[in-house]
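Example S7 (structure tokens).
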């Protein structure tokens, strides 16, 4: 196992990128990345507060319009995606809400969103693309390389 980590993010990481670097000292047959996070749904109270702030900022004339947005039923989601690079060269990204994700990269086959390629020695970067995190989120990341 190359990486076996848990990361915790909250609203201060919203709309940011979090790089995780690792190196391979030799060529490998494939790279496997396990990626999961929770919760995906922002708690209702936080969703309502965030929605109200957006209405105040972007549609202040709608603040008292009960037909505009029902704060009791609004659901917001936390969204994090994963990108992979080697020596700064783009290998891929998976923009999918399907969780957990088991991503495979190899010369023979690669998961949707990733290029088929040889897993050669060198420096790699996984970027956690934090598109929307409005409540505390726990991310599980594991990376394995098969020789």
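Recovered sequence:
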């Amino acid at each position: 196992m190359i990486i076996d980590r848990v990361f915790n993010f909250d609203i201060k990481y919203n709309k940011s990128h979090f790089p995780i670097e690792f190196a391979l000292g030799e060529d490998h047959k494939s790279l496997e990345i396990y990626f999961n996070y929770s919760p995906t749904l922002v708690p209702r109270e936080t969703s309502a507060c965030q929605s109200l702030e957006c209405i105040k900022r972007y549609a202040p004339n709608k603040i008292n319009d009960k037909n505009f947005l029902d704060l009791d039923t609004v659901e917001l989601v936390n969204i994090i995606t994963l990108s992979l690079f080697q020596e700064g060269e783009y290998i891929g990204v998976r923009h999918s809400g399907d969780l957990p994700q088991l991503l495979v990269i190899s010369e023979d086959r690669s998961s949707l969103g990733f290029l088929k390629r040889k897993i050669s020695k060198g420096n790699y970067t996984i970027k956690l693309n934090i598109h929307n995190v409005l409540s505390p989120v726990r991310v599980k990341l594991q990376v394995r390389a098969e020789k």
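Notes on this example. The radius of gyration is 19 Å.
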